[in-house]
Every structure is written in C-alpha cells, then in structure tokens.
Amino acid sequence: MDRLADKVALITGVASGIGLATAQRFVREGALIAGIDLVEPDEQIQQSIGCTANACEYFSVDVTDEPAVEAAVAAIKDKFGRIDVLVNSAGVPSFGLTQDVTVDEWDRVMNVNVKGSFLLTKHVSRTMIEQKSGSIIHIASVEGLDGLSGQITYGTSKGAVIQMTRNMAADFAEHGIRVNCVCPGGVETPMTAALNDESLKAVKEQMEALHLMKRFCQPEEIANAVLFLASDEASFITGHPLVVDGGWTAGVTLTV
Ligand SMILES: NC(=O)c1ccc[n+]([C@@H]2O[C@H](COP(=O)([O-])OP(=O)(O)OC[C@H]3O[C@@H](n4cnc5c(N)ncnc54)[C@H](O)[C@@H]3O)[C@@H](O)[C@H]2O)c1
Asked: How confident is the model at residue 200 (pLDDT cuts 50, 70, 90)?
C-alpha cells in the first residue's frame, strides 16, 4: 500500500513504543522518515524502523530544547526538501497526587508533553506554510479527557495537548495544514511496562477494566489511527481528538 508514497514524515519519540510503531507503519506506506528522540542513534533503531539509509534520518534531540529542535528541522528540510507529516509522540509519564507533586516534576512533564509538541509544530509549520500543505498529529491521551487519581500532572499535560490541537487547527487551516490528535487508552509500550510487574498487577487489572474491551492495545493499533489522520483519507478532518481507547470513555458495562 502507498498511502504516504514519497511523503516526508517527522516523528518524535521514534525510538520506542507508539513513535516506533508509527514509523514502521509509515515506511510500509512509502513514507520517508525523519526521526527524533533523546536516545542516541544506533543501527538497531534504524533497522527496526525498516527504512534504507537514504529514506531515513535520525536525530538525537531533546524536544524541549528550542535551538536543537530548530537545527534538526532545518537539517531535515535540507535533506528531504519538504516535511509533509509531523507526529509528536515524544512524551513522559508521571504519577502523584495533587498535594504531593513537586514544581520540578510539574515543569518536567509540561516541558516534554506540551512545550515539546508546541516547539516541533512551531518550527515544522513554517515549512508546511511555504508548501501550503501538511498534516500534524499529536499523541494526547484519554487521560486528557477523563480524570484519574494520581495523574494530575500527566492528565493536565494531555488536556493541554488536546486544546493545543484545536488552537493550532485554527491557526493553520488557511495554509492547508490539518492538526489533529490521537487519544489512546492503555497501550503496551515501554512506558507502561512497569505495570506488568507483579507488585502492580492489581493496578494493571483495574486499568484494563476501565476499557470496555478489557485490555490495553498494541502500539500498532494506535499507529493505524495516526496513519489515517496523516493520509489524504482524512482530508476534511482538523482540530479533532480521535479517541482510540477500546471504549474507556464510552461508558461502563453493568454485570447483571
Ligand atoms: N503507553 C500508553 O499507554 C500511552 C497512552 C496514551 C498516550 N500515550 C502517549 O503516547 C506517546 C508515546 O508513548 P509510548 O507509550 O510510546 O512511550 P515510550 O516511553 O515507549 O516512548 C516515548 C519516547 O519518547 C522519547 N522522549 C521522551 N522525552 C523526550 C524528549 N525530551 N525529547 C525527545 N524524545 C523524548 C523517549 O526516549 C521514548 O523513546 C507519549 O506522548 C505518551 O504520553 C501513551
């Protein structure tokens, strides 16, 4: 299939989880990949993305560092000549009740989850405005829609990402740029791997039970939704939080 044939896709958080699964899916659809992550580039990551050296560029960048983001975006533009799709998947989790969260932790999470996606969009959008086209997808979360104890910092950051999606959609519509986000429920990635520890089994089971489908999904199930929003099939969709949550936010099943 060639749903992204010859499109250039910049993906943050590309070394792991949803970012990696999205890069792999995009490569199978013909995209050229520019990947960004904190993790240093190595052959294994490039190989697992599945593209040839010519069709793939990897940058070790902290998404909260504006000069580094600006330089990486310029280098990507130089190499590929354009940027058609931006996927902001870099993110960090956080746990803690409101009364316990430190300001340092609050700032760390807001910096990566909110400011990072803002900075990438700020710099990539300039290229997309010149091109008069582009599709931007942030990875938000159902936790930006629903409250959950111990998730004040993370949930608030994801709520901000959902609102940022709407504001950016309004800023860029006249330039032919669509901005959407995906709101996943639980996803089996390194971010949630700690929940598989025996000591957190009860928490994992409670979280699985929040989904009508009673399970976490695989990162590929999120990548499929990102692909749809990135592709021309979503040509009239902008400012939309696409919920991919196995029914978490739909309601509850009563046992009778
Ligand atoms: N896993 C889930 O259950 C789940 C659910 C909803 C939303 N999300 C969101 O999906 C996105 C991807 O999560 P994941 O589960 O794939 O996590 P992950 O931990 O597997 O991958 C996140 C990647 O982001 C990178 N990263 C973190 N901080 C960075 C920074 N400052 N600069 C550059 N790269 C950085 C990490 O190195 C890592 O490779 C995140 O935004 C996360 O909040 C995850």
From this structure: very high
Question: What is the average per-residue pLDDT within 235-242?
Answer: 98
pTM of the model: 0.98
User: In CATH, which superfamily holds the domain spanning 8-187+219-244?
Assistant: NAD(P)-binding Rossmann-like Domain (3.40.50.720)
Pocket lining: 19 vs ligand 1, CB cutoff 6 Å: yes
Query: CA-CA distance, 138 to 99, in Å (whole number)?
Result: 29
* Dist CA 46 CA 49 (whole Å): 5
Residue whose pair of structure tokens reads 């599945």 in the numeric block: 50
Reported as a pLDDT band with limits 50, 70 and 90, residue 54 is: confident
Residue among 18, 86, 117 whose CB has most ligand 1 atoms within 8 A, to mutate: 18
Average pLDDT over residues 20-34: 97
Q: Please provide the size of the chain in residues.
A: 256
The SS3 call for residue 38 is coil
Domain ranges of the chain: 8-187+219-244
Q: Is 174 helix (H, G, I), strand (E, B) or coil?
A: helix
Q: Beta strands 134-139 and 241-244: pairing type?
A: unpaired
For the chain, the straight-line distance linking the first and the last C-alpha, in angstroms and rounded, comes to: 45
